[in-house]
Each structure stands twice: as C-alpha cells, then as structure tokens.
Amino acid sequence: MKSKVILSIVMVGLLALSIGLAGFGEARAAAKLEPYEIIMYVIGTPQKDLDLVSAELSKYLKEKINTTIKLRQFDWGDEYNQKMQNIIDSGQPFDICFVASWAANFLRNAHNGAFLPLENLIEKYGQEMKAVIHPLFLEGIRMKGHIYAIPNNKELGKQSVWRFNKKYVDKYNIDITKIKTLEDLEPYLKLIKKNESGVIPISADRTFNPYLPFDIIGESRTPYGVYLDTKDYKVINKFEAPETKETLKKMRQFYKAGYIRADVATTIKGDDEKTGKWFVGKCDTQPLADIMWSQTLGYPVVSTPIHEPIVYNESITGSMFAVSVTSQNPERAVMFLNLLNTDPKVRNMIDHGIEGRHYKLVGDGVIELLPEHRDYDMPSFALGNLFLIYRYQQDPPDKWEQFKKFNAQSKKAPTLGFVFDPSPVQTEYAAVCNVADEFNAMLYTGAVDPNVYLQKASKKLKAAGGNKVMAEMQRQIDKWRAENSK
Q: Is the pTM of this model over 0.90?
C-alpha cells in the first residue's frame, strides 16, 4: 500500500514536471520569435470593450507566439464592405480580416490578389487547425487549387427559418411548425396587422430575401445559378424564373398590405428588435439558435425551418478569415489563426471577453454572462472554431453533438466545390453585379412591382453583358462537371 502511495506521488510529480516543461518549451519557442503586432479586422456592431479584450488577449498571445493583437471592428453590411474595400484598395497594411461570400468582396478580392494563398502556410503553421476543421470546408473554398481563407469551423449547411417573437406566438396560440411558405405565413400577418397596433408583422431590412430554389453561382448577389434539383446544370437568370415571379408577387402584396415597413428597401437594421415590436423575420439558423437569439435580444424567440439544411458554396464561404498580401508577417498571422481554431482560451476570449468581467465559469465549459457582457457582445459564428466555445447555462450538454448531427444531415448543393472565375468576363461581371445591387433590395422586399421591375432588371442585365457572363459560367461548369464526373 505504501509503495502505491509513493508511486502515485512520483507520477503526480512527473505529470506536473511535464506540464511545466511544456509551458517552458512554449515560452522558449515564443522567445525565439521576433515581437509582432497583428492587425485584425472583425465584423459586427463595434463593441465598447474591444480594446480592453485586445489588450488581455495580447498578454496570452505574447506567451504563446510572442505576438500582440489589435482588433478593429466595422459594423454589418455596407459599412464593413466599404471600409474594408477602401483599406484593400489603398494598400494599407493589415494582417487578417473577416471575409465571406457576402462580406469584403471575398471572391473578387481573392481573384485580384488581395489575399495570400495559404495552403503552404497551413502545412507549416496550421496542421492542428487543419485536423479539426471539417474537410468539406477546406475542399469547398479552393480557387484554382489555392486556399485564400481559413473557414470558421461551424455548421456546414445553410438553413433559412422563420423566427418569431414568442410573445405573439403564445398570445395567439400559433402552431409555427405548420408555417413554411409565404402563403402559410399570410393569415398570421393579417392577424397581427389587425390586432397589434405599432407592431411590424415582418421585421426586415434591405438585406431581406425570400427563399428561392436556386444554387447561385459566383457572389451571392448575382442573379445567375442553377436549380437546386438540376439534372442538366443549365445556368439560368433567376429574375426570369417562374418561381421568382410568383414569390415576388406575394412579397409585393405583403408590402402593399403594410406587413413590411415602407422604407424596407433602403434601411439597415431598424429598431424593431430593440423594442420587441415585431412578429416574424427570416434568418439563417444553426442548432440551438433560438437560445442564442433569445439571450442576445433579451426576450424569447422561437423559429421553424423553411427548408432542409443545404451545403452551398455560399455557406462554405459564409464565415472565414483571410490574410492580406500587405501583412508584414503572414507566418505569425497563420500561427494566430491556428490558435483561434484550436486553443479554447483564445477562442473564448475573442468571443466572450474577459473572465470575471464579461462572464464567469459556472461549470466545466459552462458560463454565465455578467451584466458587462453588453459591452462585449460578439457574433460567435464569425470568430473561428465554433466547437471550442463555452456553453451557456441553458444550453444542453449535447450542444456540439447536435451541430455534428446537423452537419451530417445537410445536403450538398449541385455546384458545391465549383468556384466561378470571373476574370475572362471581368468587366461584364462587375457590371452585372452592379445591376443586381440596384434591383435586389427593391424586388426582394416587395417595394416595387415585380411585373415591371423584373423586366427592367433583365433588360439591364443583358445590356451589361449578362448573356456573356452566363455563357462563361456555363462553360466553366461544364468543364468542372467533366473533370469531377458530376
């Protein structure tokens, strides 16, 4: 018995020594690196405590990779896109920025050489994150054989839901599971409009788009794609598809009935969610999103799916970090991204803030938010490996298992893995995107008559060289299909 006790003491001592040596080894490895400050741009409503968290995170990164970090944040939508584009166009040095199919003009900037190809840097400095990021993410983002961004490991599929203010669902005893289409939704919009003065039936802004059964090619704003159930992979203009015409006709009816705010086509994020004076909105979801949304809004919401989860190129490229060609130390940038995807301390600090100020641990990987978290409330999906994040008290213990199940159930879109190269039609493609920007918001929100404006949009697209763009898309898809036995 005595010998077992002695052996246990020795084993504990050796374990402590090994941990100490590992930490010492990390410190020595970090000391060999030259000091460097990473400048990193993130998306989201600018947070009061951003600099405070940057400073605290820098202390830890200094120990790990002799690096400090300066987090800079631009707001959603046009602000982020325009400010990041100005920084990129001016050649202003920075290291890392958030990019997506819908943010920072990722495809265009990657094709134009604004971001570094990362596959060699990943092999040298990012093997750990390569091992944990779902392989479909890395497979689906390759462009001409290169990886121009590190995907944030999260839910694979994109699934749209109707998100409801639970207050009105309960008040009118609405079975939301039976609501999928705009037609299903219509009687309840009428009910709210009639009985709830000051409540907006559909909470929406200029980014709203109803569900349509297409797999879009190129940037998400372009009007060209293939049907989700395509067999021939024929590229079509969705503005000319009957499904689009019927859907936008219904949206126009909603707009004229007053179910949507009058300035919807020009506004970004009204104050509906702050006041709670709304009934339903359309969102992209993830497992347990209702808990997260309720936590953020401060009142309960519930949701129901519009369609099954689908793995689009857009969802694969829906949340990523790119390394700028202006980075003075891209090796250190990739070292940091490796930590962001593998080190729980780094991941949770950039997401939740500082322990003891913004949150407190109340269990093994379980946190309770403190009142000061309102000074640092970041978008989790846009900040690295989601599977490292601490759970909230109300989250079930199998939270991440539910994510894995969601990923396993997600269906692949027909063009998954195909990345359109616009360079052969660069001028026409840019013009087409500008035309789409002109019409998308007004059409999708019902602000204009689709019978008139769909024809106008199609006419302008053709004048901008749309047919040439479609032909090039078809040529590249046919080639991709032949090479990949699709």
A: no
